[in-house]
Write a structure and sequence with these properties.
The structure is a single chain. The protein is mostly helical. The protein is 83% helix and 0% strand.
């Protein structure tokens, strides 16, 4: 669970950086390089987050609903921070 919480935090930060910094730089200032770099990092962290959520479901015996909430949280800004507080922290 500790690894999932760390990945959730990093994924959430990368998502916010992508949405709040990299994408505005790309679309408003025609600077695509930060978007490519942050997008690649975020993509890797997203895949790791999904892997860890599925792994936690199997290892911790989570109900399907809890897993779906955790996965849904990954596509909403600030969602992984909510998931950490409401879904992951209670497991430790």
């Amino acid at each position: 669970m500790k690894a999932l919480r760390i990945i959730a935090y990093l994924e959430g930060i990368s998502f916010l950086v992508l949405l709040g910094i990299a994408m505005p730089l790309k679309y408003f200032f025609n600077t695509p390089t930060p978007n490519k770099i942050v997008g690649m990092v975020h993509g890797l962290l997203f895949v790791m987050y999904v892997f860890y959520v599925i792994s936690a479901k199997i290892e911790q015996g989570w109900p399907r609903k809890k897993m779906l909430w955790a996965l849904l949280a990954s596509i909403i800004p600030f969602g992984t921070f909510w998931a950490d507080k409401k879904l992951f922290k209670e497991q430790e």
